[in-house]
Model the fold of this input.
Amino acid sequence: MIPAPRIAVTEAQIDRVVAQFYGRVRSHPALAPVFAAHVQDWPSHEAKIGRFWRNALLCQRSYDGNPMQVHKAAGNVKALHFPIWLSLFDAVLDQELPQPLAQAWSALAHRIGRGLSLGLPQQEGRCPVPYLGEEWSKKASITTGQDA
Done:
C-alpha cells in the first residue's frame, strides 16, 4: 500500500518550487558562493532535491541521500545560512502555492532546516533557526489534515 502524501502538492509544484528557489539561490550574495563551491551541475542537483521533497512530502522512496552528512562535509555550510535559506524558500512557497500548502510545506522545511542547522557548529551556542512553536504546527496540521 502506498502511504498518503504528507502534504497534497503535485510533482509539478515540487519541481517549480525547487527551480524557483535555486534560481534565487544562484543570485543571493550569501548563498550563491556556498552552493557554487559544490554544485557544478544544477539540473542534476535540482533533480536530486526534487527527489528529496517527493520523499518528504509525497512519501515516495526515490531519494537516497544523507543531507546531514552532506552539509557537515561541505565545510562552508554554516548554521547561520539556514535562516537565509528558509527565508528564500518561504518566499518561493508563498509565490508558487496556495497559502495552506505553502504554510504546511514551510513548517516541514523549518523543522528540517532546524535539524540540519543543529548538526552544524553553532554560533554562541544557539540555533539560528527559530522554533516556530506549537501554534505554527497546529496551523499546518489543520491545513493538511495531518498531525504536525
